[in-house]
Please model this.
Amino acid sequence: MADFLLAAAGFVLVTVAVGLVRILSGPGDADRIMAAQLFGTGGIAALLLLAQAMSVPAAIDVGLVLGLLAAFVSVAFVKGVTRSQADEA
Amino acid sequence: MSLALNGLTIVAVCAGAFFFLAGTVGLLRFPDALSRLHALTKADNLGLGLVVLGLLFQVGGVFAALKLIGVWLLTLLAAATVSQLLARAARASGPHE
Model:
């Protein structure tokens, strides 16, 4: 079972890493932050799978913190965007 | 019994991995920011949800199971809030293509 969970964690990580191509290609800043958001969620899923596969319960806490930080990234991004638009206006 | 639980885990985790794949393909292939956001939220909610569901069959105690569900609920809450904010930012900055 551990082998399957490890393989699933690797698959999710590789899939989400391919999605990071969107950060390079853009075109908008919102598209780039979306790829980072997907990477956050995929990272949580991979951490949960690893925690079970390798019997490291602490990795679940790491996933929890990652989820919290990934949410703050996007909130900070949106606040920055709306503030710069307010400055231009 | 453990064989049946392992089977359920494999089915649920595979379905979750499929949704992550679908989210990535959608993020790369969809034409504009709002439809990309649509693909992203599927991966957030269903992909992680199915992975957590699959892991629930493997954990030993009630506390560990509740913790896994808590991780998923936090991510759901964050994804719902963040997708609203991102959609507003994407619309304010106008169509890109």
User: Anything to note?
Assistant: Residues 26 and 94 of chain B are 20 Å apart (CA to CA). Chain B touches chain A through 46 residues (CB under 8 Å). The radius of gyration of chain B is 16 Å. DSSP finds three helices and no strands in chain B.
